[in-house]
């Protein structure tokens, strides 16, 4: 069940970042109205598939598609 949810969350995150140069994780979380758990579950999926990068920029996490 969690694998299916992780895939759905990954899709939401990917769609939100598609066409952008990326955004701070806090902004993405607020935009998608996700909990920390759900945000990182989706990130895990995308990171595993090498489709996203998450970096620290100016003391903030920043996510962007690869």
Question: What does this protein look like?
Answer:
Helices cover 56% and strands 21% of the residues. It is of the alpha+beta class and 66 residues long. The chain has one domain (2-65): Winged helix-like DNA-binding domain superfamily/Winged helix DNA-binding domain (Arc Repressor Mutant, subunit A, Orthogonal Bundle), CATH 1.10.10. The protein has a three-stranded antiparallel sheet with strand order 1-3-2. Helix 1 (2-17) crosses helix 3. It starts with a helix and ends with a strand.
What's the arrangement of secondary structure elements?
Layout: H1 2-17, E1 23-24, H2 25-32, H3 36-48, E2 52-57, E3 60-65
Antiparallel strand pairs: 1-3, 2-3
Helix pairs in contact: 1-3
Which CATH top level class fits? Mainly Alpha
Fraction in beta strands: 15-25%
What is the distance, rounded to the nearest whole angstrom, between the alpha carbons of the first and last residues?
27 Å
Give the mean pLDDT. Answer: 95
Query: What portion of residues is helical?
Result: 55-70%
Summarize the helix and strand pattern as letters. HEHHEE
Q: Could you tell me the number of beta strands?
A: 3
How many domains? The number is: 1
Biggest sheet, in brief? Answer: 3 strands, antiparallel
By secondary-structure content and strand pairing, the structural class works out as alpha+beta
Put simply, the count of helices is 3
CATH topology: Arc Repressor Mutant, subunit A
Strand order of the largest sheet: 1-3-2
CATH superfamily: Winged helix-like DNA-binding domain superfamily/Winged helix DNA-binding domain
Judging by the overall fold, what is the CATH architecture? Orthogonal Bundle
Radius of gyration: 11 Å
């Amino acid at each position: 069940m969690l694998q299916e949810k992780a895939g759905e969350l990954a899709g939401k995150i990917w769609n939100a970042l598609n066409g952008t140069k990326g955004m701070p994780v806090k902004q993405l979380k607020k935009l998608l109205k996700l909990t920390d758990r759900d945000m990182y579950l989706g990130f895990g999926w995308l990171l595993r598939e090498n489709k996203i990068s998450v970096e620290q920029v100016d003391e903030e996490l920043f996510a962007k598609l690869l």
